[in-house]
Design a protein that fits this description.
The protein has helices at 16-32, 50-62, 78-90, 142-152, 167-177, 208-214, 218-227, 241-247, 262-275, 278-291, 313-323, 333-337, 349-355, 363-374, and strands spanning 3-6, 35-40, 72-73, 94-97, 100-103, 110-115, 119-124, 131-134, 157-161, 184-188, 191-192, 258-259. With 379 residues, it is an alpha/beta fold. Helix 1 packs across helix 8 (241-247) and helix 7 (218-227) packs across helix 9 (262-275). The chain binds one RNA strand of 76 nucleotides through strand 7, strand 8, helix 4, strand 12 and helix 9.
RNA sequence: GGCGCUAUCGUCUAGAGGCCCAGGACAGGUGGUUCUCAGCCAUCAGACCGGGGUUCGAAUCCCCGUAGCGCUACCA
């Protein structure tokens, strides 16, 4: 049975690239009827924080992913890693260097494996230095804890970013040292910023949380991330994770790094906004309007008296019907609809000219507008 | 520097030797519809990194170059 895992480090928010890795692992598990597991790589005690883990799990759920077992925490398994390293030392395959344990890389070997997305990859062991297994402070290195835990969790397929390609031969050597058959590896290309450089803040956000806050719908983000690296056979572009899961094939994964295109994400988001029923959008829209100060913040409003000042759903729904075709993100909505939440309507010259143009046959309205213009002292 | 991965329109991609004077989507241009915007409809422009091979035939295979990215940590 297929068992895959997503292994975040709780040292920051969920990166957009990590989110994609998680999605594809989930896709593969769901496609094959296997298990999608979580492992918390919190070996860096100083940088790991519980609040980051909470945020990461929340974002994964938000994106529509679910996992099959309780997450494994690496910070609770330090004694296991040390014991495992001890086995290798006893077998003469590793040695203690001060308080650290290093793996002896066998010379003159070609370490090869068949990558699920890239095909055959090989590297000469002579280009590898001896690998640290256990650091002087007793904590394990990434590559070592990774192998120990993947074996422990019975992981059959490892789908991760291209940045781990160079780690794989090292890990393959560890499996060999333990007499284990390594899992299958598949490395997916990294996501780059629009200018081809490493994805960073200036490209429009690197964390899932930022897109959530901007008013992107999770189905749009998930859909876009899936598209960035895989195209279904039938060429469709809009799909839910569940639909993608029914079509997914690792062999079809792209092996080319892709640039993150905010325009296309925005287009997808707009499509999902238009398709979403108002009941689903309303709570989100409320939050954005409240954040913009256009309506009272429902979450912090007093329970009793002020019902008269709260805007009814029916009213918001009408506004939404008018404007959801124009907004590419929910955060764009408030400036577009602010006039529906004000008591005065200052008109600029263009607006006045347009509404009072002779093309309008409604003389009565024109008259009213003139009066309005005269009354512009409000502004 | 060493090792590795990659290379089709601005972007995401289709293309697994002839079906391709390269198809789709986003973005862009133009026109139409509309009292504005958005939308919708129509339409245009836009690419096989360079050079060598292999082959009757290459975007597709091989080699070299170039470029981008990754790794080269007692970070993960």
């Amino acid at each position: 049975m297929v068992r895959v895992r997503f292994a975040p480090s709780p040292t920051g928010f969920l990166h957009i690239g990590s989110a994609r890795t998680a999605i594809f692992n989930w896709l593969y598990a769901r496609r094959t009827g296997g298990k999608f597991l979580l492992r918390v790589e919190d070996t860096d005690l100083k940088r790991s924080e519980a609040r980051f883990l909470d945020e990461i799990l929340e974002d994964l759920s938000w994106l529509g992913l679910d996992w099959d077992e309780e997450p494994l925490f690496q910070s609770r398994r330090f004694d296991v890693y040390r014991a495992k390293a001890g086995e290798l030392v006893a077998a003469g395959l590793a040695y203690r260097d001060g308080d650290a344990v290093l793996f002896r890389v066998p010379p003159g070997r070609t370490v090869a494996y068949d990558d699920l997305v890239h095909g055959p990859i090989s590297v000469a062991s002579d280009t590898l230095k001896d690998q640290v297994l256990i650091k002087s402070d007793g904590s394990p290195t990434y590559n070592f804890s990774c192998v120990v835990d993947d074996a422990h969790m019975g992981i059959t397929h490892i789908l991760r970013g291209d940045d781990h390609i160079s780690n794989t031969p090292k890990q393959a050597l560890f499996y060999e040292a333990f007499g284990l058959t390594p899992p299958r590896f598949g490395h997916m290309p990294l996501i780059l910023g629009a200018d081809g450089s490493k994805l960073s803040k200036r490209h429009g956000g690197v964390s899932v949380e930022e897109y959530k806050r901007e008013g992107f719908l999770p189905e749009a983000l998930a859909n876009y991330l899936i598209l960035l690296g895989w195209t279904p056979r039938d060429g469709r572009e809009m799909m839910t994770p569940a639909e993608a899961a029914s079509l997914f094939d690792i062999a079809e994964m792209n092996d080319v790094q892709a640039k993150f295109d905010l325009q296309k994400l925005r287009w997808l988001n707009a499509e999902y906004i238009v398709k979403s029923p108002n009941e689903r959008l309303l709570p989100l829209v409320r939050a954005h309007l409240a954040a913009a100060g256009l309506i009272a913040d429902s979450s912090s409003a007093p329970v009793s008296s002020s019902s008269s000042s709260s805007v009814p759903d029916a009213y918001l729904a009408k506004v939404l019907d008018l404007y959801k075709v124009r907004a590419k993100t929910l955060s764009e909505l408030p400036p577009m609809v602010d006039l529906f939440f004000r008591d005065y309507f200052p008109l600029d010259e263009d607006g006045l000219k347009h509404l009072a143009s002779p093309q309008r046959q409604d003389g009565r309205l024109r008259q009213e507008l003139r009066e309005l213009a005269g009354a512009e002292v409000w502004k």
